[in-house]
Specification:
Homodimer. By secondary structure, the chain is α/β, with parallel strands linked by helices. It contains eleven helices and eight strands.
Length: 247
C-alpha cells in the first residue's frame, strides 16, 4: 500500500497575530503539493484565525483536547469545540503532555477514544526518554503507550501515529534515519500482531524530533517513515522544504 505522506507542524506555545500572519504567508505562497497532507497546530487562541487565513490545502489541528464534550474543566477544550471551529485534527499524547503535565497512558487513551467518537482525527504521539532508550526499554515504552489505545478497540482509520523520541525533541539531537526506521518498523510489527496486518499496512507512522530541512529528505527515504511532526522548524519558511522532502 502507498501511504500518503503527512507533515504536521506543532507550533506549541509560540506565536502572536504578527507571527501567525508570517507563517500563513509562507504557507499560502508555497507551491501546492497534492501528494502530502499538511496539518499545522497553532495555540488554541489562534485556531480560528489560522483556519480563516490559510489556504484550503493546509489543515489546522488543535494541540490538545479533553475526554468529554463540556463541563467544569477550566482551561480545557473539547473535540466538540474543535469540530465547531471546522477543524478535523488534534494532537494527543505528546511527550510534553505526558512528562510536563503528567498525563497518563489511560487518560490519553480516553481522550483519544472521545476525539475519534466526536469525529476528530488524532495525531497520536509516542516515544521514549533518553534513560529509557539507554536502558534498552525503547520497545517496552512505545508498545505500552500504544497498547493503551489498542485495549480501547479504537478504529485506526483516523489515526496517524507520531514516533517522537523524547531525547530528540527540541534538543538538536535527531535519531539517525536508521534508528528512526528501526522503531517505525517495530511499531508496524506491533500493529500487525496486536491489531491486524491491514491496519499495520495502512497506518501512517510519522517521525518527530528535531526534524529540519537538512535531514528531512534522508529520513523521508525510509520505508516506514510516512512523514514528520515538526516543532520549532514549522515556524520558519524552511518548513516548506520539509513538506516537500519526498518530492
Amino acid at each position: 500500500m502507498t501511504r500518503k505522506f503527512f507533515v504536521g507542524g506543532n507550533w506549541k506555545m509560540n506565536g502572536d497575530f504578527a507571527s501567525v500572519d508570517g507563517i500563513v504567508t509562507f504557507l499560502n505562497q508555497s507551491a501546492d503539493n497534492a501528494s502530502v497532507d499538511v496539518v499545522v497546530a497553532p495555540p488554541a487562541p489562534y485556531l480560528a484565525y489560522a483556519k480563516s487565513h490559510l489556504k484550503a490545502g493546509v489543515l489546522v489541528a488543535a494541540q490538545n483536547c479533553y475526554k468529554v464534550p463540556k463541563g467544569a474543566f477550566t482551561g480545557e477544550i473539547s473535540p466538540a469545540m474543535i469540530k465547531d471551529l471546522g477543524l478535523e485534527w488534534v494532537i494527543l499524547g505528546h511527550s510534553e503532555r505526558r512528562h510536563v503535565f503528567g498525563e497518563t497512558d489511560a487518560l490519553i487513551a480516553e481522550k483519544t477514544v472521545h476525539a475519534l467518537e466526536s469525529g476528530i482525527k488524532v495525531i497520536f504521539c509516542i516515544g521514549e526518554k533518553l534513560e529509557e532508550r539507554e536502558a534498552g526499554q525503547t520497545k517496552d515504552v512505545n508498545f505500552r503507550q500504544l497498547q493503551a489505545i489498542v485495549d480501547k478497540g479504537v478504529s485506526w482509520d483516523n489515526i496517524v501515529l507520531a514516533y517522537e523520541p523524547v531525547w530528540a525533541i527540541g534538543t538538536g539531537k535527531t535519531a539517525s534515519p536508521e534508528q528512526a526506521q528501526e522503531v517505525h518498523e517495530w511499531i508496524r510489527e506491533f500493529l500487525k500482531e496486536k491489531v491486524s496486518p491491514a491496519v499495520a499496512d495502512s497506518t501512517r507512522i510519522i517521525y518527530g524530533g528535531s526534524v529540519t530541512a537538512d535531514n528531512a529528505a534522508e529520513l523521508g527515504k525510509k520505508a516506514d517513515i510516512d512523514g514528520f511532526l515538526v516543532g520549532g522548524a514549522s515556524l520558519k519558511p524552511d518548513f516548506v522544504k520539509i513538506i516537500n522532502a519526498r518530492s
